[in-house]
């Protein structure tokens, strides 16, 4: 069916749109692949590229045919594993006693080769057509829509964001968390973003072309908003959520109330902004999975910075720590906005190489770091001076960021404390996670740092800003001291001291990939758990048939001290996923067994 001279639609398990240039075409979504049997009907000799709006089978169950025909397959960035590595998803997806209700099992049955992910927020020439990709989560969290100028009209290919005036293809797809309906609120926001683009024609994956988009979008938005509000005690003003995401802490310091974790914008009179943390923007519900497709970096709040506060450039972003909810958006900021990423020296290596570390809440990919900042060294950004200080506790790899805004001394502390209320008075719970490498006195040290810096205001990752006084600082110090006392009382430290983590070894890298027959070096960090100097022996345990050189290392270490030893490993032929290595530790004449592991994929 011809829609315009340059646009055809093939009706299949979904609408397959063909953007035609001469005798070539770019397909948006692919259905069962039956379009390949009808190319002549559409005046097309070949399809060069396929752009997927989302991962569901009705959109792409025929992609194996596309790959076999040599087409380039482009997919949404957060859903690429559901195309290129869907076999792993099927093997690891929880299916017993699950509370994750996403329709990620409506995925392809087999992997397909992916040429690339669509560059979001950018216009890219693909197969002779200029296409702009914009995130439009709702039907799936990773869904994108495509905008293209064809035959003098602005076309919006919106996937399953809407079906027609007032309707969507699926309501059940909007549910992700148990009892939640996160996709409904995201759909409202995405509809607003599409409406802002003022398309002349909306082309849904199911349903007919929509010739009056503004009316259709408004009606669908109204119905979806009603569904959102039906499930809440109070209506959710999603227009304000999108248009006014920032609230003023001071005139030049803004708090983003829509992000998870909370990000802050420090405004310069030059028109630039510096962001402290930038994870999951414009959140409509907490993540319910742990795979890439359960996380959606988004830049939806930035328009409000420009429109309301006159920001012309998001110049710098700084993390308080490495956790994904604080850094997920850094890659997009860097690629789309040209934002420089500045990170504390303890955080930068983790952002750059997350697979090296056995830590929770890591982002899936390496993130750029343009500048690694030494602790305690002031750094200048326009009219501001900012200083990073080590802030272990919630995680060993964290910083407090001190600066002054509008005459107030501010300290950004990330997730160091949880906010809470007791008898109507706000208190704090120390945000302790052992896997983040907690040490007994970390919260004592942070409380002493707060005393030394004496801020007027502390801003945190998930709670409202807190005015600081001596009573509050006394409380934090007392809590830190009590936490340290409890750990020292509970553990047999006079006999064996592996610290709060309870392990005497760590292997780096924790995750790695190596070709069969190729050598890989591993470092093992070991701890002497005794108060006296002794020899630490490390045996690297490898799968049968693997070579390890040497088989054992020994090193003399002072009481309570640490050392690093190195091994070279060579796997034999044969593919393996997550082969396990272990470090077996002996201290003096006492064996502590296999204290650490690492995972290796053999290609």
UniProtKB/TrEMBL annotation:
Keywords: Hydrolase, Metal-binding, Zinc. This is MBL fold metallo-hydrolase. It comes from Actinoallomurus acaciae. Its cofactor is Zn(2+). The keyword rRNA-binding does not apply. Residues 13-206, 260-462 form the Metallo-beta-lactamase domain. PANTHER family: HYDROXYACYLGLUTATHIONE HYDROLASE GLOC. SMART domains: Lactamase_B (SM00849). Gene3D superfamilies: Ribonuclease Z/Hydroxyacylglutathione hydrolase-like (3.60.15.10).
């Amino acid at each position: 069916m011809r829609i315009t001279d340059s646009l055809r639609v093939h009706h299949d398990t979904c609408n397959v749109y063909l953007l035609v240039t001469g005798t070539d075409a770019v397909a948006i979504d692919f259905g069962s692949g039956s379009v390949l049997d009808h190319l002549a009907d559409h005046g097309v000799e070949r399809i060069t590229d396929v752009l997927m709006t989302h991962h569901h089978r009705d959109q792409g169950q025929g992609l194996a045919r596309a790959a076999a025909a040599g087409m380039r397959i482009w997919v949404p960035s957060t859903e690429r594993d559901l195309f290129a590595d869907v076999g792993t998803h099927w093997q690891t997806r929880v299916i017993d006693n699950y509370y994750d209700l996403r329709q990620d099992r409506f995925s392809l049955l087999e992997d397909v080769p992916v040429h690339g992910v669509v560059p979001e927020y950018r216009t890219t020439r693909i197969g002779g057509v200029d296409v702009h990709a914009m995130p439009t989560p709702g039907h799936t969290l990773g869904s994108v829509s495509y905008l293209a100028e064809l035959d003098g009209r602005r076309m919006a290919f919106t996937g399953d964001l809407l079906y027609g005036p007032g309707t969507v293809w699926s309501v059940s797809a909007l549910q992700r968390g148990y009892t939640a309906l996160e996709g409904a609120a995201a759909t409202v926001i995405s509809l607003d973003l599409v409406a802002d683009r003022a398309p002349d024609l909306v082309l849904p994956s199911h349903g007919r072309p929509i010739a009056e988009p503004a009316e259709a979008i408004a009606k669908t938005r109204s119905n979806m908003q009603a569904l959102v509000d039906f499930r809440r005690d109070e209506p959710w003003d999603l227009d304000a959520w999108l248009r006014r995401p920032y609230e003023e802490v001071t005139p030049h310091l803004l708090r983003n109330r829509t992000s998870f974790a909370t990000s802050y914008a420090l405004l310069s009179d030059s028109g630039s902004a510096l962001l402290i943390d930038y994870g999951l923007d414009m959140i409509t519900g907490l993540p319910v999975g742990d795979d890439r497709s359960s996380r959606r970096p988004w830049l939806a709040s930035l328009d409000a910075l420009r429109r309301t506060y006159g920001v012309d450039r998001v110049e710098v972003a700084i993390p308080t720590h490495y956790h994904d909810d604080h850094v997920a958006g850094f890659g997009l900021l860097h690629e789309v906005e040209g934002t420089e990423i500045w990170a504390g020296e303890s955080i930068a290596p983790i952002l750059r190489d997350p697979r090296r570390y056995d830590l929770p809440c890591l982002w899936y990919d390496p993130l750029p770091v343009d500048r690694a900042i030494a602790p305690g060294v002031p750094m200048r950004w326009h009219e501001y001076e900012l200083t990073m200080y080590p802030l272990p506790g919630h995680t060993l790899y964290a910083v407090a960021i001190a600066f002054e805004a509008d005459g107030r001394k501010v300290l950004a502390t990330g997730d160091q404390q949880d906010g809470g209320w007791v008898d109507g008075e706000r208190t704090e719970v120390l945000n302790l996670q052992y896997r983040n490498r907690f040490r007994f006195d970390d919260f004592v040290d942070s409380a002493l740092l707060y005393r030394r810096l004496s801020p007027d205001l502390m801003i945190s990752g998930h709670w409202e800003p807190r005015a600081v006084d001596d009573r509050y600082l006394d409380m934090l110090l007392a809590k830190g001291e009590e936490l340290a006392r409890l750990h020292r009382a509970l553990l047999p430290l006079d006999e064996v001291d592996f610290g709060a983590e309870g392990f005497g070894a760590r292997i780096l890298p924790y995750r790695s990939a190596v070709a069969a027959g190729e050598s890989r070096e591993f470092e093992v960090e070991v701890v002497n758990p005794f108060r006296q100097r002794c020899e630490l022996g490390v045996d690297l345990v490898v799968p049968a048939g693997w070579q390890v050189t040497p088989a054992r290392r020994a090193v003399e270490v002072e009481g309570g001290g640490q050392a690093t030893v190195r091994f070279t490993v060579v796997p034999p032929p044969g593919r393996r996923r997550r082969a396990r290595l272990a470090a077996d530790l002996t201290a003096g004449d006492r064996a502590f067994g296999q204290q650490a592991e690492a995972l290796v994929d053999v290609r």
